[in-house]
Amino acid sequence: MQQTLTAHAVPASQSVPSQTTASPRTLTVDLPCGPMVVDIWEPRRAADVPPILLIHGWGGSGQYWAESAEILSETARVIVPDLPGSGRSMPVAPAQDMYDQVDNLVALLDALGLERVQLNGHSMGGAMTLLLADRVPKKIDRIVLTSTCFFLNEAQKRIYDGIMRLWFVVMRVRGPWMANLPMLTRASAYRYFYRIPDDEALLRAGFMDFITMDFETARACAHDAGDEAITEAGSRVQAPTLLVACRQDTIMPTKNVGYTASLIPRSEVRWIENCGHLPMVEKPTEYLSILQDFLAL
């Protein structure tokens, strides 16, 4: 896959609300499907550690990793892409399924000349993390799977498919105007948080990710989520792996976490209590402490 790496500034209208003080540089990897915009957080203190690639989940973008990226970049280079079809990585054509997104991530590693990397994938980004690790196992130093688990059985897959069909109906009528309705943005957050943050700008930014993502790419990636290839890739993981699970997560069934860990070699589980699907947003201090204990930093 051919790609071109360029640098550009992030438009002010697309900047992420944040309490962080450090700033990333923003690059664009030009892929056959369109641009992939990537934030690069350079380490503030020299340390011989592998870079960290943070992979966002379905319906999101790299924006919710901002606080994590700043803290982790104390000693490590942190790479945060918006996957094609999400966030700033628009337009996209053709639509990208989960395996296309893994191709895009491999292209990103190649464009940056990375020979070794640590991965942290969130939700569906965790599935992409396992597929990426299976594609380039010699490049992977450590893996974190945040709010990610395997399906236990076909019944769970059918329930998931039904839920996604409802989401696709909603996506057909969505529009940017919806983000200007605070009650709507807050209502959508109930599914993702145990306690919804008071930061309305943060909630609006997350909701904007959902209502602006490419429909066909979202549908193609969601279709792949139940593929047995993901579980098979997990069973072949060679790098040490940490599962970070949240006790009140209503997106990923908590009862599946032990089963998932049992299939991934050299894996361990850390639980966060009183937290929903987005621990990097809802419980950032505890979440970052867990990452810092596990990653090479």
Beginning-to-end CA distance, first to last residue: 31 Å
- CATH class, anyone? Alpha Beta
Arithmetic mean pLDDT: 91
Query: Could you give the order of the helices and strands?
Result: EEEEHEHEHEHHHHHEHEHH
Strand count, sense and closure of the main sheet?
Answer: 9 strands, mixed
- CATH architecture title: 3-Layer(aba) Sandwich
Low-confidence stretches: 7-20
What's the Cα radius of gyration?
18 Å
Indicate the CATH topology: Rossmann fold
Strand content: 15-25%
Secondary structure class reads alpha/beta
CATH superfamily: Alpha/Beta hydrolase fold, catalytic domain
Cross-sheet strand order for the largest sheet: 1-2-3-5-4-6-7-8-9
Q: Supply the number of structural domains.
A: 1
Count of helices? 11
Structure description:
With 297 residues, the protein is an alpha/beta fold. It has one domain: Rossmann fold, CATH 3.40.50.1820. The chain is built from eleven helices and nine strands. A nine-stranded mixed sheet has the order 1-2-3-5-4-6-7-8-9, with helices on both faces. α3 links the parallel β6 (117-122) and β7. α2 packs across α3. The protein starts with a strand and ends with a helix.
